[in-house]
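Whiteboard transcription, Tuesday session. T.W. wrote the C-alpha cells on the left side:
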C-alpha cells in the first residue's frame, strides 16, 4: 500500500518536469504522458489495495503521499525541507499511528 502511494508521488516529478518544458514540445508531452500513465497504473493498483484492505485503513495512509512527495522534491529538485514540512509530516505519522491503534 505504501508502495502504491510512493508511485502516486512520482506523478509530481513528471508534472514538475513537464512544467519546465515548453508546452506542446516533445519533452512536455513525454513528461505529461508519463504522469497520465503513472496515474493509470496507480488507479489499477489502488483498486487491488481496496480489494484486500478496508477502505478506512487504506485511506488513512494516503497522507504518506505528501511525505513521499516532499522527500522526492528534496532529493531530485533540491527543494528545502522546512520546519513546517517536518511538523506536518510528524502530524501525519501521529494521525496514522493514532488511527491504527484505535
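and on the right, the sequence the group agreed on:
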Amino acid at each position: 500500500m505504501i508502495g502504491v502511494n510512493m508511485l502516486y508521488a512520482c506523478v509530481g516529478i513528471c508534472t514538475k518536469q513537464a512544467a519546465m518544458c515548453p508546452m506542446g514540445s516533445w519533452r512536455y508531452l513525454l513528461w505529461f504522458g508519463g504522469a497520465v500513465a503513472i496515474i493509470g497504473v496507480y488507479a489499477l493498483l489502488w483498486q487491488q489495495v481496496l480489494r484486500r484492505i478496508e477502505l478506512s485503513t487504506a485511506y488513512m495512509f494516503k497522507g504518506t503521499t505528501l511525505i513521499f512527495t516532499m522527500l522526492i522534491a528534496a532529493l531530485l529538485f533540491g527543494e528545502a525541507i522546512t520546519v513546517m514540512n517536518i511538523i506536518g509530516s510528524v502530524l501525519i505519522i501521529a494521525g496514522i499511528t493514532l488511527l491504527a491503534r484505535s
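Someone added at the bottom: The chain has a mean pLDDT of 92.
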